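Sequence only, no structure available. Ideas?
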Amino acid sequence: MNKIKIPSYKSLSLIFIILSMGITLFPAQAPLMVTLRYTKESTIIKPNVNYSGIRVITNSHETGGITKITFEIPRAIDQNRFYCLVTSVNVGGMLKASPEGIIHQNTLECLAINTDAPYKFYIIDLIKDSCLSGSSDPLCPINPTYHVEIKEEILPPTGKLPDRTIIIGCDPEWIININGGTQPEFTIVLDNSMTEQHQSEEKFEEALIKLQLAALDSNALHASTRRTIKTDGRCTRIIESII
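Reply:
I predicted one. Tokens follow.
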């Protein structure tokens, strides 16, 4: 049988054609999926979420009387660690040290909170499961499963937040559980029923007002985003851009 030889210039032409058609040769990095799940007895509050200098768009779903707030966090190619801060107070910033000869400046070095305020801070590591030798699943190398390790930690005395911190505006006392899944994802279960967390309806309403005020302050440091949905009959694209 004669072997078919493909000249090198034809191989290059084939590569350029594939690239020009927009065909993806490698899968994109899957985003981190976050779910806030309220108990049935809870009052549903859509929390303010910020990440990497922008306000994150959230979605609300209800199934069987259980309400879930979901959102996506983009991942860099090599990113498998995230941080998550849950707090009911506003997140401010630490100013950079003033250069010599400059008395006043207002450039922020990083985000920070008052560590005396109520908060919970988590380190979230996405651990990729290895493909078993002899596995019959051909998609395992490009579509792996994960297990998620979550640790609660204390912020340094300065209150400085690491880069890639997901900031969720809600009372940390509402958290009753946090756990990961088999994909890049984690779920926080919330219970803010007055019988569990508050002595009276007045105190609950006061807590909600404080959350709204804290969101206004935190949003001042984060850009708004706009979601655009485009479809061409073959696929639907969801595009989020900074306003």
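The two ends are 62 Å apart (CA to CA).
Hope that gets you unstuck.
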